Amino acid sequence: MSDLTRVTAAELATRLAAGEVSSVEVTQAHLDRIGAVDGAVHAFLHTNTDEALAAAVAVDTARAAGEDLPALAGVPIAVKDVVVTKGQVTTAGSKILEGWVPPYDATLVERLRAAGMPILGKTNMDEFAMGSSTEHSAYGPTRNPWDLGRIPGGSGGGSAAAVAAFEAPLAIGTDTGGSIRQPAAVTGTVGVKPTYGSVSRYGLIALASSLDQAGPCTRTVLDSALLHDVIGGHDPRDSTSLSERAPSYTEAARAGATGDLTGLKVGVVTELGGEGYQPGVRASFEASLELLTNAGAEIVEVSCPSFTAALAAYYLILPSEASSNLAKFDGMRFGLRVEPTEGPVTAERVMAATRGAGFGDEVKRRIILGTYALSAGYYDAYYGSAQKVRTLIQRDFDAAFAQADVLVSPTAPTTAFKFGDKVDDPMAMYLNDVATIPANLAGVPGLSLPSGLSDDGLPVGFQILAPARADERLYRVGAALESLLLAQWGAPLLSRAPELEVNA
Amino acid sequence: MSTINSDEVARLAALARIDLAPDEITRLAGELDVIVQAVATVSEVAGDDVPATSHPIPLTNVLRDDVVGRTLPVDEVLAQAPAAEEGMFLVPQILGEEQ
Amino acid sequence: MSVTDELVDYDDAIARYDAVLGIEVHVELGTATKMFDDAPASFGEVPNTSVTPVSLGLPGALPVVNGTAVEYAIRIGLALNCQIAETCRFARKNYFYPDVPKNFQTSQYDEPIAFDGHLDIELDDGEVFRVEIERAHMEEDAGKNTHVGGATGRIHGAEYSLVDYNRAGIPLVEIVTRPITGVGTRGPEIARVYVQTLRDIFRSLGVSEARMERGNVRADVNLSLRTSPDVPLGTRTETKNVNSFRSIERSVRYEVSRQAAVLDGGGSVLQETRHFHEDTGSTSSGRVKSDADDYRYFPEPDLVPLAPPREWIEEIRASLPEAPVARRRRLREEWGYADAEMRDVVNAGAVEIIETTIAAGASPAAARKWWMGELARTAKTEGVALEELPVTPEQIGQLQALVESGRINDKLARQVLEGVLAGEGSPEDVVTARGLEVVSDDGPLLAVIDETLAAQPDIADKIRSGNLGPIGAVIGAVMKATRGQADAGRVRELIMERLG
To answer: Chain B closest CA to A415's CA: distance in Å?
Structure first.
């Protein structure tokens, strides 16, 4: 029997349902793998061995009793540390929340538990999801399983690396400007940012409320669809949650896997390519376009002129909302409290000392930037203008989707860069998100799947975007391209990643 | 467009309640100036006739029924507090005033 | 707190300066749950028990608007003759303070739910004065700080503070007037009557218990002086949280006197918040407007816009009760009260309770007599509001019916009321249990009268001879012997029959 950590979640679900393996075996296999490789990868901030095994036992017991169980019952999962888990430490990668144990579960965590999915642990991330490399985690970076000297992307580098390193079959990420898709791209995995409102934000430690969206991090498109079906759906505790019933994404992925795309119109966005994109990335992207054409799709070029302003709008809206969302971290009710080293100990000064000591550089940078953008006298020029750009970007999407069923682009302009390359150059770091940000500004869904390796031997991500509330198109088209690529490769791309040294 | 100097960073840090060391202020002023120059272009993109979009998906009138739900147990609430006394959160002396 | 302000006599000040008021009133809505989460919006609970992750501002928690609070806000807006917004939003007001759990207050900024209204108030002499309303908007209350250590229990000097978040998130509607001009010498009265009228409106709308002493209604009074109504407005001060009607009146008088002295002395009024002190009737300097007032408002991204359907608004409008001023006039006429009597009833907040008592069968005069007399005294002694007394208007109606049927007299009625207040049941129950019914069977009564007369033959003779002077003493003795249960009129009749 093959290694339980190497098979897909869908396959695990089938074997669990058939009684070929127990959830305890599957969960233990992943905990062992974490023990063996996470010292090098550092995908996890905390593991929940006992809780995970207890949940696994509960599922096995229920199954033995003949209970009707949800599709993914018994399949373990890793959760990004920005999602609150009752009774389990949640830090969002920040020192200011070190040791914080939330008294409640995020809605999506409730749904995972209800689906019988053992939670292996919490994954590493850039502090408060601010970053594209996990170098901004207060607890040290996560390493890319393809090359431990390189970044795994960010902010959800931990979730992507956990899946890529076979430490978890599934993981939860959150995507504010690309934090699911860009890590997926640079680790050779699949990541989906659903339509804004598709997955409840209740219990996600907010970065930018109007941009944040949680979604799946997996190794296959079908696994993402399975997970999206579990965590999606209306939540009355999130005012921005979509109320209409979504179709089955799993069915869409299974239908797409036949590889037939006859009649599909695929729009290539002019502004999300060309200059600034690594040649190896472009080559991989072009090759995938050819596969889509061969499968019956029609490729059209579409222009979204306002996308060139997306990065600027994003870096005003995000810091503005974040400066307010992160105000609650003040050392009064929970988390770190630091007293000033000299002078009177007043609430005001303790708040400032706590925030000064508890936040990292990138968080401070963005809070100050957001405070500036919202400050009296600047609001109209900055935040107000950025919200107008958002309108223009939505209009561009509307026009583009009138011409094409889905839009495509490389997910990120480059493959994984080396640690330290961009950490001192915020603008260069921000440019990583140039292709992923428009979807967040407009609320439309996006998926990244691996399209191959660049000439540097590192994975490249292929991004598919669909209109709002049409997430099923991502799964259909994504699964089709995935099966075409797999047929070409003969084995999943991840099988070409170097084997990690195992710590016995 | 205005530029961000050290005085401005100090003012913003006070407003955002973040203690910054002098060298941090200097460094942030330099970095933020570059960022602000880059993002300031937004004000030139959209004309006055373009409405602002605050929410990516337009929804209205999301209201809740006025029905009491579950509250948190007070001991769980206070267990995570940096300091507590008599069932309340203990905070250092407050000098400023309520607004 | 020592008062060092220079003051000018009020009459002198107001003769030379034109006072302009602006009043912000916050009312806590009487919804079952908070503005943005389903924690109970109750009063007097154990600290930090009426909280959810939302009202504590825990990481990850999200707000959802209370539909009933929106309905109440619309009711208030309509009662104040406001326009109701076609669409409006919530915004975040960002500032750091320990009792504000998110370090921003979710409020409404440039898009209030109601705007451009007015309220006609009736002054003490019956004159009607119109107050223009700029806006009424929804927001959430803050938690409560208890300052510990130091001598005074005030903020200054406290060693630390304890925070209770039960109140955090309770729905508030803030009503802001336009500058109130043309007040002449009557600024203090206008300020008081305006807030009183709002209080009555909140109660009649059923949107709040509107109890000043509990802080359900809080007023901030802005005041500025200028040399004449023809010149621009002067610099204003804002006196915060003036929490009784009397204090509102006094604080306005004080600020007029203080600001006049400042201006007389060639100084300029500082734009600041001020605090009113009940003990001295003075205000003291608070916070000066500063950079910290940069609240960085922006639309609340966690909430979606409100667009109250027009049909809903019309439905609410149709269900609105009569405006207090009109209603008060109608009731005064129906009840036949004198102006002063009605004013006392209004000031005591007893209009509804008397109305219900009358509906329960009592005459208007009797209802007023009970509630403004015996019960008002009891409430005052106990330090509670009238409606908090353990007696219902229906019971007062029953009590009065017992008196009018002759089954008990006024003196017994007071004993019955005592029993009701002591929790002994309905007036009927108390009468039965305590055996308080008026003795109406003449047999036993005649026996007592005969006994009394026999004990005092000389008095009996005097009466018999036509000298009615001592009859009172006999009646008194009979009443005493029957422990007050006899009808004094009937006793007199029987004595006359016996001796006549």
So the answer is: 24
Q: Output the 3-class SS for C165-218.
A: CCCCCCEEEEEEECCECCCHHHHHHHHHHHHHHHHHHHHHHCCCCCCHHHCCEE
Residue B14 lies in a domain: yes
Q: Is the pLDDT of residue A409 over 90?
A: yes
C-alpha to C-alpha distance for A229 and A94, rounded to whole angstroms: 30
How far is the alpha carbon of C307 from chain A, nearest alpha carbon, in Å?
14
DSSP summary character for residue B31: H
CATH of domain C442-499: 1.10.10
As a whole number of angstroms, the distance between CA C331 and CA B24 comes to: 70
Res B96 pLDDT > 70: no
Domain annotation covers residue B25: yes
Interface with chain C: mutation pick from B77, B78, B90, B95, highest number of C CBs within 10 Å: B77
SS3 for C400-444 is HHHHHCCCCCHHHHHHHHHHHHCCCCCHHHHHHHHCCCCECCHHH
Q: Residue B28 is part of a domain; what is its CATH number?
A: 1.10.20
Backbone φ, ψ for residue C159 (5° rounding): -85, -35
The pTM score is 0.87
Instruction: Kindly report, residue by residue over B54-75, the tens digit of the pLDDT.
Output: 999 999 999 999 999 999 999 9
Instruction: Name every chain A residue with its beta carbon within 8 A of the beta carbon of C101.
Output: 328, 333
CB-based contact (8 Å) between B68 and chain A?
no
Segments forming the whole domain that contains residue B35: 6-45
Put simply, whether C301 touches B (Cβ < 8 Å) is yes
Q: Which amino acid is at A456?
A: D
Q: Which residues of chain C fall short of a pLDDT of 70?
A: 1-3, 150-157, 289-292, 439-440, 500
Domains in chain A with CATH codes: 9-262+447-496 (3.90.1300.10)
How many C-alpha atoms does C11 have within 13 Å on its Cβ side?
A: 0
Establish if B89 touches chain A: CB-CB under 8 angstroms. yes
Region of residue C210 (phi > 0: left; psi between -120 and 50: alpha; otherwise: beta): left
Residues of C in contact with B51 (CB under 8 A): none
Assess contact for C161 and C98: CB atoms under 8 A.
yes
C301 interaction partners in chain B (CB closer than 8 Å): 54-55
Nearest neighbour of C64 by CB, restricted to A102, A206, A239: A239
Q: What's the alpha-carbon Rg for chain C, to the nearest Å?
A: 29
8 A C-beta contact, residue A217 and residue A170: yes
The ipTM is 0.96
H helix or E strand, kind and range, residue C26:
strand C18-28
Answer whether C109 touches A (CB < 8 Å): no
pLDDT value for C447: 81
Strands C18-28 and C171-177 turn out to be antiparallel
Q: List the structure tokens of C16.
A: 């030379």
Rounded to 10°, the helix C339-347/C351-359 angle is 110
Q: Which of C58, C64, C163 minimises the CB distance to A236?
A: C64
Residues 13-52 on B with a CB inside 8 Å of A are 13-20, 24, 28, 31-32, 34-36, 38-43, 45-46, 50-52
- Contact of C165 with chain B, judged by CB distance below 8 Å, is answered with yes
Encode pLDDT of A242-299 as tens digits: 999 999 999 999 999 998 999 999 999 999 987 889 999 999 999 999 999 999 999 9
Chain A residues within an 8 Å CB radius of B35? 315, 365, 369, 426-427, 430
In Å, how far are A237, B65, C319, C334 from C66, measured between CA atoms?
12, 6, 20, 39
Q: Which residues of A are catalytic?
A: 80, 155, 179
Residues from chain C that touch B17, judged by Cβ atoms under 8 A, are 96, 103
- Please count the structural domains in chain B: 1
- Indicate the domain borders of chain C: 10-313, 322-434, 442-499
